[in-house]
Amino acid sequence: MRCARWLHLARSDARRCAVTGGGGDREREEAEVLRLYHGEKWPVGTIAAQLGLHHTTVQRVLGQAGVDPKVVAPRPSMVDPFVPFLVEQLGKYPSLRSSRLFGMLKERGYPGGPDHLRRVIGRLRPKKPAEAFQRLRTLPGEQAQVDWAHFGKLAVGRALRPLWAFVMVLSYSRRIFLRFFPSAAMPFFVRGHVEAFADMDGVPRVLLYDNLKSAVVERHGDAIRFHPMLLELSGHYRFEPRPVAVARGNEKGRVERAIRYVREAFFEARTYADLGDLNRQATEWASSAALDRSWVEDRARTVRQAFDDERDVLLGHPDTPFPAHERVEVEVGKTPYARFDLNDYSAPHDRTSRTLVVLADLEQVRIADGNEIVATHVRSRDRGQ
């Protein structure tokens, strides 16, 4: 049985190749359909079977040639009496699954199987209208787009940490700021902004975000609740945080293309000793090769030249940067150690059995008791140290 079916398929392929010349020549295939219908008087079913085509394909070719659709109507099907019901249900519930419709038809006496019905439903299901997107243009200094991108794992001693890239791209000049972090936590999100503004020596008026948890805490339609720390950050630097509309990928295309460019032009096959080394290389790349690439709006110019036009219209940033450290309250027990981020950091022996505060950045961990810093350590990315 299996061999017979294989032979049938092979013959069908051979017939198709005979018609199309083996190269998928659509014009030759359509010409053969018309020749067999008009010259040899073959019915639609015979043409479809002999050429290995679906009968609707033959109907389409004949319809385009002006043949009366009534002449080429397919033979009656057991699903025909149920078509009005299917059209009605799909009109009410366009995304209703074929399996559920099949069950509804079986309850109404449909004698066929699910496979043929699934093809019929596919033809009857309402199609979403094609949507056109206008190319978005922004003024210099007006907007930047921000997103996180995951780049696998970072091994540090016995610890295996996620590696995330914070990417900000200026929408006009396409200048990229790139910084890698061992987490996508809110303190690193804030730190990415602070370092980006310092690196660009200015602040865009609008920052556009995907629906990141770091940016949007809650959303119901057009009602947005931003993360409180993001609102504090925006108030400090005087920019407007703005989320992209739902299902509007074209609004954040610049940062998505920037992330793809980072993956292909910087990160792929790159070696680095640790997180600090990776960020040093990222800074060097973003200020050289990434700046000297062609500017998409005018290939005769570079991103560096476009950024020179944009730099002067960015908002000035405050004299004091926004605090971008992690702040965690920790309970110190009878032993003088504060547990933070998989490691224990020593505290003075007279600060046991109380709550202290850990203030941490990428390089340093400070332990505070009230307003007093009581211990300072180099930060460890290992675990159990």
Topology:
Layout lengths: L1 H19 L5 H14 L4 H8 L3 H10 L18 H10 L5 H10 L6 H11 L18 E14 L2 E12 L5 E6 L4 H15 L5 E4 L6 E5 L2 E4 L1 H10 L2 E4 L9 H15 L7 H12 L7 E2 L2 E5 H9 L14 E7 L4 E4 L2 E4 L7 E7 L3 E6 L2 E7 L7
Helix pairs in contact: 3-4
Describe the model.
The chain has 385 residues and is α+β, with helices and mostly antiparallel strands. Helix content is 37%, strand content 24%. The chain has helices spanning 2-20, 26-39, 44-51, 55-64, 83-92, 98-107, 114-124, 186-200, 228-237, 253-267, 275-286, 303-311; strands at residues 143-156, 159-170, 176-181, 206-209, 216-220, 223-226, 240-243, 294-295, 298-302, 326-332, 337-340, 343-346, 354-360, 364-369, 372-378. Strand 11 (337-340) and strand 12 (343-346) form a beta hairpin. Helix 3 (44-51) crosses helix 4. The protein is elongated, with a radius of gyration of 32 Å. The termini are far apart.
